[in-house]
Amino acid sequence: MNREAQLEEAICFAALNVPDAELRARFLGRACAGDARLQAAVEELLLAHAGAEDFFAQGRAAVNAPELDAQTAAALRAAEGEADFTDEQIGCRVGRYQLLQKIGEGGCGVVYLAEQQEPVRRQVALKVIKLGMDTKNVIARFEAERQALALMDHPNIARVLDAGATDTGRPFFVMELVRGTRITKYCDDNNLNTVQRLEQFIQVCRAIQHAHQKGIIHRDIKPSNILVMLHDGMPVPKVIDFGIAKATEGRLTDNTMFTAAEQFVGTPAYMSPEQAEICGLDVDTRSDIYSLGVLLYELLTGRTPFDTAVLMKSGLDEMRRTLREQEPQLPSTMITSLRRTELTLTASQRHAEPPKLISEIKGDLDWIVMKALEKDRARRYETANGLAMEIQRFLDNEPVVARPPSQLYRFQKLVRRNKIVFAAGGAVALALAIGLGLSTWLFFREREARFHERDARERETQLRAEAEDRAKITQAVMFVSQGKYDEADEILSEVKFFPVNPTLDCASALRSVGEWQALQSHWQLASERYSALMKIDKLDSPGQVIFDYQACSVILAENGDLEQFRRLWRMAVTNFAATPNGSILLAFNLLPLSNSEIETMKPMMDALEKQVRSLSKSHQSEWTFMPIALWQYRCGNYDATIQWCQRALAQGNKFPCSDATIHVILAMGYYQNGQSNEAGSELALGRQLIDDKFKTGLDHGRPGSGFWYDWVYARQLSQEAAALIHADAEPSGPSDAGQ
């Protein structure tokens, strides 16, 4: 294109932004500088494009404007200045809002930071149509954005708060102020790994799904329209700018705009093929699925499927051809093709080494992205929620729906090209298949009959065994009621399968025999009885179930069965997560915890501590403070351990068992805090109480003063403290219990 043609087109582009006929005539006169031939050529272009105002308004984002020399550019700027277009001044009021700062500008709207004074005082974002852009179509598009946002209520979509018109009659609306960073920049600046990026992307998909359910297509999904803000320290993506949104059901406003022929709506790099295509094909929600696919591609690779700069330089027709016909590279292939320095930078921004990043993307993520970017929209994901669920399946290591179309797709094409050959071959294959199928069906039917017969015999045997076990359990319950624990234990040892729906008598028998064995220091036998009890302990009161958990945890620890102890720990965490119980949490702090176990228990312990702090003084006791003191010790908070122990010892309602345990915990806290003398004194006090109890022998015990397993718990904890404070001491072994 020669310089004269460039100048004509540039002046034409500029004149299209001047809606007033008189102002446009003044603009042309100054821009053409008295050149009648030039002015006539421009006016001819304007006449030729009289029906395509929206095309040029939106197309400037897609078609590269001519590059001009400095003298011509200066003349155009001077001519545009004659139109005397000015935006609202900072500090002035628009409705109830005072403009504080200009924070953004789009093709037809300007966004300001504004302050609302009444009825509440807050900062908001106020968007108003730019002066000189208030044509019917632009006003309709602006009104569409206002109505589109007003329809939606989703945590990941900027909310509309108010709307109105300026003194000059130009519409504006007010929405919540999103102080955020575009999603790609936020992910790169914070070096989010692939999983974290996918979690952010899922939230964006759910926001777009919400818009689609309200009948709104965004049509301009891109990073600058998705801002990430921090809420309570957590990143929350917000979808903004529904300025070119389209209603899929009904109308957004009375002036809803229809896309004219050859109108280019959207951002080229993120635009679906049907959105860019010049045809009568309507744009539906699957256009947004394509744009989400481009966004996902960019989050994974740092680049869009088609280079933005190349698209802008190629011209409108070539751009459309590229979007419609050219297949993008796989994301993993795009990463692999980068130069070494670019690859290293891209991988570091995703908190990974280059080989690991390529490995993460290659495979499932490649196919997910390419399914979203299908040229044929019928082969994309049907909904944004479907794309989100696909990503979630990938994160959960589940099979994904997306599959490479190569084998099956090519075979279908081959069949369509050779219908007669495949029809004849299909008839022969069908006959063979029917014969083979019939014989196979007869074979499987016979085998199924044999299986049914065998299953019936096995079921009969099982029912007989269950009946025998029920009889033994009934006999054991009778022995327990007579105080014959030896006989009851012998009978229970012969039971192979305890019933799925046990009785209270069965649970009581197991508990009584297990406790009897524990009081005799028969820890292995006690462990077997209590382990069976925990599998069927579903009918007793919640309080009794808690006591059983405590007793079983102490027995398993005393027996050295750490694997069973950890399994019971996980069961307790699951069952009591919603209602933290001090006794349960104390029991499962008996042994040192791993970092992951501490993290698992932390919410429960925080809830318990909050609950204890809210108790009135009359409801506080050593037992309420003891779990928190030991928890603080397991977490390494030794000052807090000492404070909680001292608070417990200051209570008036003391019992020897709780006193002994508190002294032991305090001893470990003092020792870890460097106070060795105090640690020794506290340990001596605790062990004295424990030794006195075990000299007289264990008994069942009673609430408040401590059951038998509370004393065993105290002794186990004292052994840990003794090993810590006096490494050369020989703590008493499990066999000392009950002596």
> What top-tier CATH class of the largest domain fits best?
Mainly Alpha
Uncertain parts = 51-71, 73-86, 253-263, 728-739
- Biggest sheet: strands, sense, closure? 6 strands, antiparallel
The quaternary structure here is: single chain
End-to-end separation: 106 Å
Report the radius of gyration as a whole number of Å.
38 Å
Strand order in the largest sheet: 1-2-3-4-6-5
Tally the helices: 31
CATH superfamily of the largest domain: Transferase(Phosphotransferase) domain 1
The beta-strand count equals: 13
- Strand content bin: 5-15%
Number of domains: 4
User: What form results from the Cα inertia axes?
Assistant: extended
CATH fold assignment of the largest domain:
Transferase(Phosphotransferase), domain 1
CATH architecture of the largest domain: Orthogonal Bundle
What helical percentage do the residues reach? 55-70%
Instruction: Look at the helices and sheets and give the structural class.
Output: alpha+beta
Mean pLDDT: 78
Characterise the protein shown here.
By secondary structure, the chain is of the alpha+beta class. Strands 1-2-3-4-6-5 form a six-stranded antiparallel sheet, with helices on one face. A three-stranded antiparallel sheet has the order 7-9-10. The chain has a two-stranded antiparallel ribbon with strand order 8-11. It is 59% helix and 8% strand. Mean pLDDT is 78; it is low at 51-71, 73-86, 253-263 and 728-739. The protein has four domains: 3-81, no CATH class; 86-177, Phosphorylase Kinase, domain 1 (2-Layer Sandwich); 183-404, Transferase(Phosphotransferase) domain 1 (Transferase(Phosphotransferase), domain 1); 593-736, Serine Threonine Protein Phosphatase 5, Tetratricopeptide repeat (Alpha Horseshoe), CATH 1.25.40.
